[in-house]
Design a protein that fits this description.
By secondary structure, the protein is α/β, with parallel strands linked by helices. It has a domain of about 200 residues: Vaccinia Virus protein VP39 (Rossmann fold, 3-Layer(aba) Sandwich), CATH 3.40.50. The chain has 9 helices and 7 strands; from the N terminus they run ααβαβαββαβααβααβ. Strands 3-2-1-4-5-7-6 form a 7-stranded mixed β-sheet, sandwiched between helices. The longest helix is centred in the first third of the chain and has 18 residues. The two termini are about 35 Å apart.
Length: about 300
Amino acid sequence: MIPEFALDPRQVRSAFERAAATYDEAAVLQREIAGRLLERLDYVRLSPARVLDAGCGTGYLLPPLSRRFRRADIVGLDVAAAMLRYARRRGGWLARLGNRRRYVAGDFAQLPFADASVDLVISSLALQWCRPDSVFAECRRVLRPGGLLLFSTFGPDTLQELRQAWSQVDDSAHVHGFADMHDLGDLLVHAGFAEPVLDVERLTLTYPSVRAALLDLKRIGAHNAMSGRRRGLTGKHRFAAFTANYEAMRREGRLPATYEVVYGQAWVPEQPSSRPRADGGVGIPLSAIVRRPNS
């Protein structure tokens, strides 16, 4: 199911506006996941005329996408204008590759593009800041027949240590919810995509202190943006209790921060009129599938 508490879009935008200057320095995990997501394009046949990097942030994926699809129109979209300014700087040399490129301030759940105008939507770690059902419906709308949606997002076990440490202090939600992989698959089918493929992995960062872990989250803009979040200061006694609970999880001198990473891909059926079958399935174009080499 979609997590029951909603995010405040204004808070999400504001957090990433403030984090633009510190994001690249702190986004070690985000770069690793983006690279792993990009590798999945090695196993599909696709020659897109237009590629959309939705939630492009500071533009980390734009150069490799431009090298891979040299004739494509590359579009970077982000909700935070400050992030796009850094993306423009990173992408300044792309003209030498012959790409047309644009940077668009916009909402992933309300894409400012015409129907059937994009061939590939790729999105690394942006989906968790939106309602996935709205995002998938918009991606289905803007993708052409035979187009591909490729994304990564976080699953429910993400930051489980942080969640557990706070749960022993109060009943407030300090970490927002993340959609389960199986629910995301159901939502993709409901939106009209061909049989989605999703998988999950768990990555763990370690920190020398609670302060270092929280600072990393702040520097990438990962604030508590829930509409029903607790207002006002946390209070030193409650924060001290939270810190003590987190410290109890220390192993070999380091504090863990677990991330459940969900990767997904789904195709738009070749025929625009195709719709999911009654059993939930839908045809996938065989021409778009490349077998993985035997290991």
